[in-house]
Amino acid sequence: MDRRTVLRSAVAGAAAFSGSLWAGAALAAPAQPGPGPYGDLLAADVNGIQLPAGFTSRVVARSGQRVPGTSYLWHWAPDGGACFPAGDGWIYVSNSEVPFVGGASAVRFAADGAVVSAYRILGGTNVNCAGGATPWGTWLSCEEVPLGRVFETWPDGSRSAEERTRMGRFTHEAAACDPDRGVVYLTEDEEDGCFYRFVPDTWGDLRTGRVQVLCAPADQVAGPVTWRDVPDRDGFPIPTRLQVGAAKHFDGGEGCWYDRGTCWFTTKGDNRVWAYDAVNQRLDLAYDDSLVPVGAAPLTGVDNITGTASGDLYVAEDGGNMEVNVITPAGVVAPIVRIIGQSSSEITGPAFSPDGSRLYFSSQRGTSGASTGANGITYEIHGPFRR
């Protein structure tokens, strides 16, 4: 049997997602294409962005150029991002996926969305890809290199960034905090990467703790899982992903998002969105392009992920047709954003403003497809998002 047939058999009759984010949804299988909650995409606007009716776009920053209204030069290769409340406005933080320079920058917005300032919050690091926000208002910036590190940063620039190497040394991608269990979930961008969680000795203090890896049968796509301690979190000479024989391996871990009992994470090698039910310690598939009718998959190049209080997930594409797709609690997947003329780029860093009315993201390589130079573009979408 081909992979599509095998997967259909594996998930047939699977229970609906048990995490409370989608509790009560009559969802017995991974999401399928259908009419989105916002309607069809319209013709591209002046920024080359296709959006549904009622939504507008603006360019916030361009790599190598001053952020409008400031003297700060925006970084190259913008990647993972998040928003944080700041007074009566908010801050958008963005990583830089550049070797040996890396780091992260921030843009501060006023209550009306006007740019107030822009500045550096981390520098001198290596290929900072994604990361995650903490409940106490810091940004975890992750290095996507072998023996990569996690850095805790302060979006307002009030403190210098601090290294958090006790969270493991591996090819880090994204992080998502679970305050209910007091752990941080971590993805690994390797073809045989693992899904981890960091268990700090004290919640809110990431300086000490232990790293655990998710364990399950290699071919399992739905069912119970367990966690085991990683013996050597420093990953040398034996990489962390190879230290526990029962560890489940995932094909290119990418984005990670936690909300109300469920941690959603993506794998780019097989275009999947996974749902880890933290309450019942169970793994399920939320989306898999192999389970969509041939030629009908709206979401490919699965990458960064974020969500809203309404229960909608927003998944950005690395390649594909340069879209952000929404996956609804009803199990429908549909595009809400499409960038035209940038097929050699990827969409990175999707994050909502605190009030949920604005979505930020970047086209990492813009129209040129090159990760260095003035190519990256950071956008804002404003509109009637479901909240």
Automatic annotation (TrEMBL):
* Keywords from the UniProt entry: Signal
Which Pfam families would you find in this protein's record?
PhoX
Q: Secretion signal: which residues?
A: 1-28
- What InterPro entries has UniProt attached to this entry? PhoX, WD40/YVTN_repeat-like_dom_sf
For this protein, the record's PANTHER family field holds: DUF839 DOMAIN-CONTAINING PROTEIN, SLR8030 PROTEIN
For this entry, the protein name equals WD40 repeat protein
The organism encoding this protein is Micromonospora taraxaci
Question: What taxonomic classification does the UniProt entry list for its organism?
Answer: Bacteria, Bacillati, Actinomycetota, Actinomycetes, Micromonosporales
